[in-house]
Amino acid sequence: xxxxxxxxxxxxxxxxxxxxxxxxxxxxxxxxxxxxxxxxxxxxxxxxxxxxxxxxxxxxxxxxxxxxxxxxxxxxxxxxxxxxxxxxxxxxxxxxxxxxxxxxxxxxxxxxxxxxxxxxxxxxxxxxxxxxxxxxxxxxxxxxxxxxxxxxxxxxxxxxxxxxxxxxxxxxxxxxxxxxxxxxxxxxxxxxxxxxxxxxxxxxxxxxxxxxxxxxxxxxxxxxxxxxxxxxxxxxxxxxxxxxxxxxxxxxxxxxxxxxxxxxxxxxxxxxxxxxxxxxxxxxxxxxxxxxxxxxxxxxxxxxxxxxxxxxxxxxxxxxxxxxxxxxxxxxxxxxxxxxxxxxxxxxxxxxxxxxxxxxxxxxxxxxxxxxxxxxxxxxxxxxxxxxxxxxxxxxxxxxxxxxxxxxxxxxxxxxxxxxxxxxxxxxxxxxxxxxxxxxxxxxxxxxxxxxxxxxxxxxxxxxxxxxxxxxxxxxxxxxxxxxxxxxxxxxxxxxxxxxxxxxxxxxxxxxxxxxxxxxxxxxxxxxxxxxxxxxxxxxxxxxxxxxxxxxxxxxxxxxxxxxxxxxxxxxxxxxxxxxxxxxxxxxxxxxxxxxxxxxxxxxxxxxxxxxxxxxxxxxxxxxxxxxxxxxxxxxxxxx
Length: 640
Known about the structure:
Layout: H1 3-16, H2 22-29, H3 33-45, E1 53-56, E2 59-62, H4 66-73, H5 81-94, E3 99-100, H6 101-108, H7 112-129, E4 133-137, E5 140-144, H8 147-159, H9 169-175, H10 183-199, H11 206-224, H12 238-255, H13 261-272, H14 280-283, H15 290-307, H16 314-333, H17 342-348, H18 350-367, H19 373-395, E6 397-402, H20 409-421, E7 425-431, E8 445-448, E9 459-461, H21 468-497, E10 498-505, H22 512-526, H23 532-544, E11 553-554, E12 562-579, E13 582-593, H24 597-612, H25 614-623, H26 627-639
Parallel strand pairs: 6-7, 6-8, 8-9, 10-12, 11-13
Antiparallel strand pairs: 1-2, 3-5, 4-5, 12-13
Helix pairs in contact: 1-3, 2-3, 5-7, 6-7, 8-9, 10-11, 10-12, 11-13, 12-13, 15-16, 15-18, 16-19, 17-18, 18-19, 21-24, 21-26, 22-23, 25-26
């Protein structure tokens, strides 16, 4: 039984947080419901006295402390294929003259045939990295390549453990094989490193600090084995020398290890690719390569125009340019930075992530480097932070306070509302008459201390002295109005853009994402909506980053809005099909025209929101047996 899938089951339940049926879990994991029940039994058997997964009429859910109990239990680890693969790779990395196939199979308690299968997986991994090679001479197998390439492979193994927002540094260190120094010591090192760099005028985000600490732990472990890095490539800059001094000093004081110059310079180089200098607006872009600065400005300008977003503020461009310069260094060093928030950013903020993908695409073309999903997620964090500056104002609703005048009572009430609800509503008018003209009040909300003659959804009765209950009611009503407006716009747009002739039930994922995109794209090509170039553009966009934004829905599309009109082709699979790292049942190929840029944002983000609710997705999939049924269910959910 796959230990990896058991752990994946726990991760899915933790991410969801509620009850999930065996059928929903089987769809996500690509196994039968019977297997799900077996996995639950196996997970709970690890801690017989304190079951990790609860079961009930609504399905399964993880106890709040379930994952922590598993980590703390110290229960023996069964040799899953992934565990075995890691042990084999560590053996190959540590043995300069290689390992004997038969002896290694005996040590891992597997057959020679199983070990040969594992070696094929190792060969595929090292071929993907391109810096190592697996060499075979009779029964002996050895890794050929530099010490730096071996460390990168260890780092890659550890980073592959990061899933569903998890960034457990101790787990990463164990997978990397670095356990010679205690976790507490590395905790001190990470804190001292951030403090020292802060004193030098740098800011290191927590993800970057943990990632660098992982590389330091690998370096310490390898150095203690007599496998230090001896060479220093190129002439180090003054900044790199300064970082190297800090790393070396802290490694000796906190970890008790004296690192050589090669290791110190390597770690300093990694730090340089991950630090961000605060106050970039005061520094200008003198620290940025002019080629990178020009590429970022061109990408931001095009994307701001294409998506109608405000991203051209100088300070934002400067900070993003510094980030991209670090990204370019990481690309050259093949020292990619992982982001545990990638999945949640994509599912929760699809429009922001899409803007980041577009920026990444422009940068890839102009700078000649590929940008991975995790790195795109960091760009999305920059974009989201910038857009949030204006979004807060845009999402606030206007409100009128109706409070008959009695000394300064209405002024006190307005002050309380502004203090408690300032992020949700903006008070634009205060009416102090006891007999206001209710019909003349045009704001989104009316907050009144007196009973209106005619009830209305937008009128909320509050007390003269605002209570927590009043705040909660106003907040809920404001959220309802915002959601109703969004979904109303979405409903109107979707009814315009769907076409009964561009609907396919029984989608077959055997040909992969590309085959599905070509099938759905072909239906739109026949209708003159797009051309073959748009279909190729959608395939190219998919290669950059998976468009599986939820566990049920993928929305492939091209980055260029070249359709003659906006249209969406829908494909529904009877059972989930693989899509990137996910499995989906609904694929919506979206073709957007230049004239419908605003519709892109409305349709794209809100469509993903509808399918983000598992119950909504399953209802549409179950009842959408034809185009009419699909559209009816979608519209019904939007209007509910």
